[in-house]
Write a structure and sequence with these properties.
Elements lengths: L2 E3 L5 E3 H29 L10 H6 L6 E4 L4 E4 L16 E2 L7 H74 L13
Antiparallel strand pairs: 1-2, 3-4, 3-5
Length: 188
């Protein structure tokens, strides 16, 4: 049973359903990321007018400004080029929130992505191995049943030929008077 029963009784292949949804989700995520990136890069924002971290980060949408904690000023931020360092900032900087600095966010996102990829890989391997094991077990049971049917057919054939041979031998013994009621009686 590798599928689910739909509303009208037809079986839907679960693996195909999951793969299709994953592809669609990936495409939607890619489109959203591309739109956010083009929006972030398309217009200029004056970051120097912001005087604290929350107004610097929350006042500008699409990550255009970052708060430098070393100089306590709001600086322009480009998420595609300013990944490790921010130009004009000597200390750590905050780009997405005012609680965790940008480097920790990058490390956290990297770890989270690695955990998700590892979980997906482990789940895929586990599903493939278990599915393969179940298929092998089913195949072995089917082969064993076929082998047992063949052994039973051979045994029936041997029993039939044994009975036929016994009848022929009894007929020959009767013909020549060698057949007695008691098998342990002496011949004359």
């Amino acid at each position: 049973s590798n599928g689910i029963i739909a509303e009208y009784g037809e079986t839907i292949n679960t693996n195909y359903f999951i793969q299709t949804n994953l592809r669609m989700t990936g495409r939607i995520g890619l489109v959203i990321f591309a739109l956010a990136l083009t929006t972030a890069l398309s217009s200029d924002v004056n970051c120097t007018q912001n005087t604290n971290c929350s107004s610097c980060i929350n006042g500008t949408f699409a990550l255009k400004c970052a708060w430098c904690s070393g100089s306590s000023e709001c600086l322009p931020y480009n998420p595609t080029t300013d990944i490790k360092d921010l130009a004009g900032c000597t200390g750590s900087f905050y780009a997405s929130n005012c609680v965790v600095n940008h480097m920790m966010v990058i490390i956290g996102v990297g770890i989270a992505a690695a955990v998700v990829l590892l979980a997906i890989t482990a789940l895929t391997v586990w599903c493939c191995c278990c599915r393969g094991r179940a298929a092998r077990k089913k195949k072995m049971q089917k082969e064993e049943a076929e082998y047992q049917r063949q052994r039973d057919a051979i045994a029936d054939k041997h029993e039939a030929s044994r009975a036929e041979r016994r009848e022929k031998n009894d007929a020959i013994r009767m013909k020549y008077g060698l057949k007695k009621n008691n098998a342990y009686e002496r011949f004359d």
